[in-house]
Amino acid sequence: MKEQKTTDRYTLADLENWRKVAGDVDPPVRLGVFGDPVAHSLSPQMQNAALRAYEINMQYARFHIRANEIRAALGFLRQLDFIGVNLTVPHKIAAFWQIDQADESATRAGTVNTIRLRDGKLIASNTDGEGFLRAIRTELSVDLRELRVMILGAGGGTGHAIALQCAL
Q1: What is the pTM (predicted TM-score) of this model?
Q2: Which is the catalytic residue, given 2, 5, 20, 92?
Q3: What is the pLDDT of residue 1?
């Protein structure tokens, strides 16, 4: 079966008319990243390579969702056959207030970067702090507790999660 490529990016209007817009895309788009901007995201290349490697019959796409559209976009997801989305700027804080349930990392940080859909419910996580911790261990071969860390630009949500991880 030949894979039909998704568009470079979708929009809120596309989500609103999803079955018409992407109904013929094969394998289907069931995962994605929401952001504004989002065209720079390398997530689709990485995630789609992993999906193909594990022979999972779905695709991951970019969604250009503006700050004032996040509530509507997440509402549309509840009605569609999506598995989940990742969030990037500027949605990590705003989306926290639109979800049904959050894990401990998201609750503590007050931000989310991953949303799974289960029975129409939005279940959120934040992996930014743990990702930062693992990167420090892997790249610097040191424990975070041995470092003094300065965080610049903590307003977008990722900084909240990293600051919390450092505090822990």
Answers
A1: 0.87
A2: 92
A3: 41
